Amino acid sequence: MLLDELVKTTDAVASTRSRLAKVDALADLLRRLEPVDIAAAVGLLIARPRQGRVGIGWRGMTAAMGSRPPNRA
Fold first, then answer.
1. What angle, 0 to 180 degrees and rounded to 10, lies between the N-to-C axes of helices 3-14 and 19-32?
2. Could you give the CA distance from residue 37 to residue 33 in angstroms, rounded to a whole number?
């Protein structure tokens, strides 16, 4: 499974209000996955990765992406 495929699918799901379109996008992704990748993909889709917490917060993520975190006053 490529993370890019997962991101594209979640973008497609988020960009439509159609329940059928959401189901179609998710079903298409799951259909294309290797059986060994299904549990990991579902975990990421429901925001519960198999390994639990990933150990990186907002600041670490934005630093890795090269942008500054929002200023929280």
1. 170
2. 6
pTM attached to this predicted model? 0.64
Amino acid type, 56: I
Host H or E run for residue 30: helix 19-32
Q: Strand, coil or helix: what is 25?
A: helix
- Between CA 49 and CA 62 the distance in angstroms is 20
State pLDDT tens for residues 21-64: 999 999 999 999 999 999 888 888 887 766 666 667 777 777 77
The residue count for the chain: 73
Output DSSP code: residue 33.
S
* Domain spans of the chain, in order of start: 3-65
